[in-house]
């Protein structure tokens, strides 16, 4: 049933992006006017991205909890230009986190193999006040659960972000914004401050959106680039485990480096490796018997493929 839902959403998004006669002029004018602006803002992104991450062994720091994780992600976001300066944003995201928890002696909560799902629909818009000043926002609403038991409105949640982006010169942008998410347990509403820098040669690109991400990219040639960075992500899942309903909070903190290769002008392959550092996995249940503390530093590997549509 979930697969049918995903296919239906993707088909709807595809049909929804079918452009009426004459709309190509708006697209061409939009790309010509703002293509370089978006390249500076997010040169590493493609429209459709499929990713996989493997965490072979992660232990609780000061507690008995331990798990192995296989994580899969699908992200699709497409812009729809209505005229030279105004565009809509729409898309879909699906994430699956497959945990294999190690048995713990006499736990209050017996967790085994658990599969957490994140299903989100994206919607937003952007408007250029001038060629150098963009206002944009996005809302992602969906379900965060393991789909065990009957439907519960606690599965539903949303995240949102809004930005003002100003281009100082062809190689520098400043960002100010705010986000509503579960990246930080103690701060649902988080202010965002960002910077984008592109070297005169176009080989070096710095992207910072504090406090959630920072990435430095070096392009060796038009088809191959290396990068290093840090990322903070998080979600709150409402799940049923061991016949108990509870909230499970995931905080991912990653430091890593990798490489991206453009197979064609529309397809990329990526590999990444690094460390989980300061991450958390918390069962929000009194005396769960495990995962009441931070996680130890642990390695991870990741791979992905991207499509520019």
Characteristic key phrases:
2 helices; 309 residues; 15 strands; mainly beta
Structural account:
The structure is a single chain. With 309 residues, the chain is mostly beta strands. The chain has one domain (2-307): Porin, CATH 2.40.160. The chain is 11% helix and 62% strand. It is built from 2 helices and 15 strands. A 14-stranded antiparallel β-barrel has the order 1-2-3-4-5-6-7-8-9-10-11-12-13-15.
Helicity level? 10-25%
What's the level 1 CATH class?
Mainly Beta
Strand tally, please?
A: 15
**Main β-sheet: number of strands, strand sense, barrel status?**
14 strands, antiparallel, barrel
User: What would the average pLDDT be, to the nearest integer?
Assistant: 89
- Low-confidence spans: 1-23
- For the termini, the CA-CA separation is 27 Å
Strand order in the largest sheet: 1-2-3-4-5-6-7-8-9-10-11-12-13-15
Give the class from helix and strand content and strand pairing. Answer: mainly beta
Q: How many domain modules?
A: 1
The CATH topology: Porin
Helical region count? Answer: 2
Task: Name the CATH superfamily assignment.
Answer: monomeric porin ompg
Tell me the fraction of residues in β-strands, as a range.
over 45%
How are helices and strands ordered from N to C?
HHEEEEEEEEEEEEEEE
- What is Rg? 21 Å
CATH architecture level-2 label: Beta Barrel
Global outline: globular
Give a topology summary:
Blueprint: H1 2-16, H2 23-42, E1 48-59, E2 66-81, E3 86-101, E4 113-130, E5 133-145, E6 156-169, E7 172-184, E8 187-198, E9 204-210, E10 213-221, E11 224-241, E12 244-262, E13 267-276, E14 280-284, E15 298-307
Antiparallel strand pairs: 1-2, 1-15, 2-3, 3-4, 4-5, 5-6, 6-7, 7-8, 8-9, 9-10, 10-11, 11-12, 12-13, 12-14, 13-15
């Amino acid at each position: 049933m979930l697969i049918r839902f995903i296919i239906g959403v993707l088909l709807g998004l595809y049909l929804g992006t079918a452009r009426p006669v004459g709309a190509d002029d708006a697209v061409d004018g939009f790309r010509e006017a703002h293509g370089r602006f978006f390249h500076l803002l997010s040169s590493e992104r493609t429209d459709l991205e499929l990713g996989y991450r493997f965490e072979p062994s992660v232990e609780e720091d000061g507690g008995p909890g331990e798990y192995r994780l296989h994580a899969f992600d699908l992200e699709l976001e497409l812009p729809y230009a209505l005229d030279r300066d105004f565009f809509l944003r729409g898309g879909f995201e699906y994430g699956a986190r497959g945990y294999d928890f190690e048995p713990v002696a006499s736990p209050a909560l017996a967790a085994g193999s658990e599969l957490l799902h994140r299903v989100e629909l994206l919607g937003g818009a952007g408007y250029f006040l001038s060629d150098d000043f963009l206002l944009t926002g996005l809302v992602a609403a969906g379900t965060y659960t393991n789909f065990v038991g009957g439907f519960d409105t606690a599965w539903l949640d949303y995240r949102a972000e809004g930005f003002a982006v100003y281009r100082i010169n062809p190689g520098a942008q400043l960002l100010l914004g705010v986000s509503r998410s579960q990246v930080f347990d103690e701060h649902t509403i988080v202010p965002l401050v960002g910077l984008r820098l592109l070297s005169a040669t176009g080989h070096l690109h710095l992207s910072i959106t504090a406090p959630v991400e920072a990435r430095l990219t070096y392009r060796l040639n038009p088809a191959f680039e290396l990068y290093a960075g840090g990322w903070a992500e998080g979600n709150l899942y409402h799940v049923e485990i061991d016949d108990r309903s509870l909230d499970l909070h995931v905080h991912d903190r990653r430091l890593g480096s990798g490489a991206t290769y453009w197979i064609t002008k529309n397809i990329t392959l990526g590999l990444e490796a690094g460390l989980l550092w300061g991450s958390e996995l918390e069962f929000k249940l009194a005396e769960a018997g495990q995962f009441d503390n931070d996680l130890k530093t642990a390695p991870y590997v990741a791979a992905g493929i991207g499509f520019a549509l």
